Amino acid sequence: MRIERELMRGAGPVAVLKLLERGEMYGYELVESLSQQSDGVLAMGQSTLYPLLYNLEAKGLIAGSWREAPETGRARKYYALTGKGKKRLASDAKQWQALVNAMSVIGVVSRDGKRSVA
Amino acid sequence: MRIERELMRGAGPVAVLKLLERGEMYGYELVESLSQQSDGVLAMGQSTLYPLLYNLEAKGLIAGSWREAPETGRARKYYALTGKGKKRLASDAKQWQALVNAMSVIGVVSRDGKRSVA
DNA sequence: CGTTATACCTCGTGTCACATAGTATGTCCC
DNA sequence: GGGACATACTATGTGACACGAGGTATAACG
Fold first, then answer.
1. Structural domains for chain A
2. Which of A3-7, A27-31, B37-41 bottoms out in mean pLDDT, i.e. has the lowest?
3. Over residues B7-21, mean pLDDT
4. DSSP states of B48-76 as a string?
5. Contact, B111 CB vs strand D, < 7 Å
6. Distance B71 CA to C11 C1' (A)
7. How far is A65 from chain B (nearest CA, A)?
C-alpha cells in the first residue's frame, strides 16, 4: 500500500534507526528493505533517504564508513547506529507509541490493526 | 506527554478531521480539545492550527461559518466536516492504520500500547 | 479599570519530502 | 569487448508545513 508522503513525516527517521539497530546497512539496501519489509508503506526514494541519512549522521545518531562490498567489491557506505542513536531511537519509539495511543483514543486508529469504522 | 513536533507531522490534519466528525467545532475549542483528549500528545499551538484549518478549508474538506456563541455572544468561526472531508478522513485513517502496522512489523511500536523493548 | 480568558489572524524561519538529474562502477550476455 | 542493466551515492530546486513570536479585539471578573 502506498501512502501519502505527508503522513509519513517523522516516521522515516525512526524506521531507519530501527533497521540499523539490527546491524549496519548501506543506503541502497535501506531503500530496498524499507520498501519490502513494510509492503511499500515505508518506501521512500533515494532522494529522500540519502539526505535523511546525512542528517542523522550530522546529528551523530549514525556513523558511516566506506568499505568494499564483500560480494561484489563495490564501494559502499555502511551506516551503523551510535550510542547516541540508540538513545534517540528509544526516545523516538516511546514518543511514537504515545502518538499511536493518542490517535487511538480519538478513534483514528485501533490498536488491533483494524481500521476504525467511520 | 509532549512529543517532538516532527514526529507529529501528518497526524494533525487527520486528528482535526476526526474531531470534526463528531460535530462542528471552532478553532480555539480544537486547540483545547486536542491538548486535553490526548494528554498533550496531539497539542498544537494556534499558529499551527489556524493555518491548518485554512488549508483544510481551501481543500474543501471542512467548511467554516461565522456565528455567535450561544453562551457568550462572541463571534466564532465554526468548522464542519464536508462530504469530501469525510471521504478524506476515511482514506487518511486507513493509511494511518497501514503506517502503524508497518511500524509495528519492524518493531518500532507494538499494537497493544506497550513500547517495544530495545 | 485592569487583568485574565477567549478567539482569531499573520509573518518569518527553519526543516523536510521529493522529483529530477547526474556520476560512477560492477555484472551479464551476446 | 561493448551495450544494457542493476547497483550505489550525490546534488539541486521546489513546495509544503510546524511553530515561535507578535498582533488585534472582546467578554468576564474582581
1. 5-105 (1.10.10.10)
2. A3-7
3. 90
4. HHHHHHHHHHHTTSEEEEEEE-TTT--EE
5. no
6. 33
7. 24
